[in-house]
Design goal:
This protein has about 120 residues and is mainly α. The chain has 2 domains: about 5-70, Arc Repressor Mutant, subunit A (Orthogonal Bundle), CATH 1.10.10.10; about 70-120. Helices cover about 80% and strands about 0% of the residues. The chain is built from 6 helices and no strands. The protein has helices spanning about 5-15, 20-30, 35-45, 45-70, 70-95, 100-120. Helix 1 runs antiparallel to helix 2 (about 20-30), helix 2 (about 20-30) crosses helix 4 (about 45-70) and helix 5 (about 70-95) packs antiparallel against helix 6 (about 100-120).
Length: about 120
């Protein structure tokens, strides 16, 4: 079973919507990098039981993302904030090179600071 790290990312957004058992299995498999056999031994169930639980959880995580799109929206917002920071830096550079204005510099710093806080 190949590991899709996108599932680990989705777990951050939707993990609380899974059953405790499913969440544990996914965390062991993706975040702690345990094998199916290791998880089975630790949990006292069969390897097939672990695999089934992980597969069900993966399907649920993917369905939740398809319906709600929180992870996609998060990625888009981070990308947008990065573009905003890049544009602000270009404005700052232009301001320093051609027409220095303290007001423009203050606003650029405000834009960059706000975007960076939102990315945290």
């Amino acid at each position: 079973m190949a590991k899709d790290l996108h599932i680990s990312f989705l777990l951050d957004f939707y993990g609380e919507m899974l059953t405790e058992k499913q969440r544990e299995m996914i965390e062991f498999y993706y975040n702690e990098d345990l094998s199916l056999a290791e998880i089975a031994d630790n949990q006292g169930i069969t390897r097939q039981g672990v695999r089934d639980s992980i597969k069900r959880a993966e399907v649920q995580l993917l369905e939740m993302e398809e319906r709600l799109g929180l992870a996609k929206r998060f990625h888009e917002m981070r990308e947008g904030l990065s573009q905003i920071c890049d544009a602000a830096l270009r404005i700052q550079e232009y301001n320093e090179k051609y027409v220095y204005s303290r007001e423009v510099e203050r606003e650029v710093q405000n834009i960059i600071g706000t975007a960076q806080r939102l990315c945290e």
